[in-house]
Known about the structure:
Layout: E1 2-6, H1 12-26, H2 43-48, E2 52-59, E3 62-73, E4 82-91, H3 100-114, E5 120-122, H4 129-137
Protein name: GNAT family N-acetyltransferase
GO molecular function, one term: acyltransferase activity, transferring groups other than amino-acyl groups
Keywords: Acyltransferase, Transferase
Amino acid sequence: MLNFREAIPSDIPQLLLLEQCLVDAERPFNTAIKPGNPTYYDIEDLVSNDNACLLVVEESGKIIGTGYAQIRKSKDSLQHEFHAYLGFMYVDPEQRGKGINQDLIARLISWSKNKGIHDLYLDVYSQNEAAIKAYEKVGFEPCLLEMKLKTT
Length: 152
């Protein structure tokens, strides 16, 4: 049985390990990721911040999925003053295809709406077709493509 809940401080060691699983999964999409164990997130802040909701999915006491929504100030050029940014979207590879990511996103959307936020954004590597399909399935659509150039 899966248990969806907000992360608590005692989850941080497991979350740090899952963050490295996510980094490793994204390495094929970005050769600029530092070797070793770079970090993407301030997990302690996400756990304690009232403007963020870090969810975990547990199975038999083990965290098998994560995702957060964080309220952020939007660019002045946009109609909405604030938006929710989704990140740390990760489901254990053995658990994928079971709708866990969709359920996580639905819960994060609900949290965002309860905070009065109706515009949500996330980043995904353009080559990560499986993730793009998963996000499109719940209603996300491409908005901005970031491009990079490394000169020699």
